[in-house]
Design a protein that fits this description.
193 residues, metal ion binding, binds iron/sulfur cluster, iron-sulfur, 6 helices
């Protein structure tokens, strides 16, 4: 009999909360890269994710204790790196950024305080747009402060390595401010494929 592919976990709204899971650990920080969104970016990989997608691109970072604690020194370094004219913005990945809102909200607010909207903020999430809208206040606050959300689990059955900034075809690159203003998902207008 053919083996059925295991599905990622599917939480109920507000079932998983950052306050119950996040250890405020960082799996990696990659300044000045070209792969995590548009332009030159500084990328923070937070630790911990509960979706457990088969084929996850960063399985080690599913562990909330993986890596090292987020520190003020690292935050200061990120702000300094973002200050270069050639850097377009900050990217949050994981792990699951929306299960590490203590770290992500603090950093996002600092970026807005230092740079206003001169730098853009992208975040990846295993949650879909629709799921985030039904979830906890910290997730909604984070959503309201970012520019681009790449949403949804990685699905092996829909894997497509030709896609721009996504691993599977169910995932979307969403313009967050326009989507919130319109009350429906608006796809990033620079989407190529
Ligand atoms: S949502 Fe992303 S980080 Fe989490 S298990 Fe799936 S692929 Fe891995």
């Amino acid at each position: 009999m053919p083996q059925r592919l295991r599905e990622p976990n599917n939480p109920m709204p507000k079932e998983w909360l950052a306050k119950d899971h996040s250890q405020q650990y960082i799996a990696d920080y990659k300044p000045f890269n070209f792969v995590d969104g548009e332009g030159v970016r500084c990328s923070l990989y937070v630790s911990g994710c509960l979706f457990n997608c088969p084929g996850c691109y960063n399985k080690a970072a599913q562990n909330f204790h993986y890596g090292t604690p987020y520190t003020q020194e690292l935050e200061d370094q990120i702000i300094e790196d973002l200050g270069h004219d050639y850097v377009q913005g900050l990217t949050l990945l994981g792990g699951e950024p929306f299960l590490n809102t203590q770290v992500c909200l603090k950093l996002i607010k600092r970026v807005r305080q230092e740079f206003g909207h001169q730098k853009d903020i992208w975040s990846w999430s295993g949650y879909t747009w629709e799921e985030l809208l039904q979830d906890s206040a910290d997730k909604l606050e984070m959503l309201s402060l970012i520019d681009i959300l790449v949403d949804g689990r990685f699905l092996l059955a829909k894997k497509d390595l030709t896609l721009q900034f996504r691993g599977s075809s169910n995932q979307r690159i969403i313009d967050v401010p326009k989507s919130l203003a319109n009350g429906e998902v608006v796809i990033w207008d620079k989407l190529v494929h």
